[in-house]
C-alpha cells in the first residue's frame, strides 16, 4: 500500500460505513484509510459504529443503496464486524477498524496545524454514468479558527450525516494533502441541534489516539 495524496487519491482514501436497522441498510458516516504501524485501518468517529452494533465498511456507495435509486455500484466491502473489541476512545469519539493489507490508499497524518491554516472536511458525492454511480470528492473548506486540547474548530459550516469524515490540510512545501483530524460534528459541550451542526465544524485531534494504536 502506497501513501499518496493527489486529489483523486483522496477520493480513494475515503470510505463509507453502513449499519442495518429494521432490515434496512443505511449509511451512518464516513471514514478514512490510514496506516498505523505496518497495517492499514479505517479511522472514523466512534458514534458511527457503537459497541453494540454490526457494521460494514465500503469503498463506495453500498450496492443495496444504489439499487434503491435505480443504479448499480461497483463498491467493494473492505470490512465487516461488530463494534465491540475495536480500539476506541469515547472521550475523543474515535474508533479504528483493521483492514486487509491490500485495501485502499493510506494517507499521511499531520498532528499540528497553525491557526488560520486552510482546511477542508471531505466526503463523497456521486454522479451518474450510464447506470452506475461514480465517486467524486465533495468538501467544505474553511480556516482553522480555534484550537483546544481535543481538536480544531473550522470557520466553515458542518453538515448533517458527515460524522467520521476526514479533515485535510495541504502541505505548503510539497503540496501533498495530510490528514489533520476527524469531523465529529459539534463539540460535546454544544447541544446537538441541526442549527449547531450547520454552524460548527469540529475536527477531533487524532495524534494521541493513534500513538496508542
UniProtKB/TrEMBL annotation:
InterPro entries: Peptidase_S1_PA. Pfam families: Trypsin_2. This is Trypsin-like peptidase domain-containing protein. It comes from Igneacidithiobacillus copahuensis. The lineage of its organism: Bacteria, Pseudomonadati, Pseudomonadota, Acidithiobacillia, Acidithiobacillales.
Amino acid at each position: 500500500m502506497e501513501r499518496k495524496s493527489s486529489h483523486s487519491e483522496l477520493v480513494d482514501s475515503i470510505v463509507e460505513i453502513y449499519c442495518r436497522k429494521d432490515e434496512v441498510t443505511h449509511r451512518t458516516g464516513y471514514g478514512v484509510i490510514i496506516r498505523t504501524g505496518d497495517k492499514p485501518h479505517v479511522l472514523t468517529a466512534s458514534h458511527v459504529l457503537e459497541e453494540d452494533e454490526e457494521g460494514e465498511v465500503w469503498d463506495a456507495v453500498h450496492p443495496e443503496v444504489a439499487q434503491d435509486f435505480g443504479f448499480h455500484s461497483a463498491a467493494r466491502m473492505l470490512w465487516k464486524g461488530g463494534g465491540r473489541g475495536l480500539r476506541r476512545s469515547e472521550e475523543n469519539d474515535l474508533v479504528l477498524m483493521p483492514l486487509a493489507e491490500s485495501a485502499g490508499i493510506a494517507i499521511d497524518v499531520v498532528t499540528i496545524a497553525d491557526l488560520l491554516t486552510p482546511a477542508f472536511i471531505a466526503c463523497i458525492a456521486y454522479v451518474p454514468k450510464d447506470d452506475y454511480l461514480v465517486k467524486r470528492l465533495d468538501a467544505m473548506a474553511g480556516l482553522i479558527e480555534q484550537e483546544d486540547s481535543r481538536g480544531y474548530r473550522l470557520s466553515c459550516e458542518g453538515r448533517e450525516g458527515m460524522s467520521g469524515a476526514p479533515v485535510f490540510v495541504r502541505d505548503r512545501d510539497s503540496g501533498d494533502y495530510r490528514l489533520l483530524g476527524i469531523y465529529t460534528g459539534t463539540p460535546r459541550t454544544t447541544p446537538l441541534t441541526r442549527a449547531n451542526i450547520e454552524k460548527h465544524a469540529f475536527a477531533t485531534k487524532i495524534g494521541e489516539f493513534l500513538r496508542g494504536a
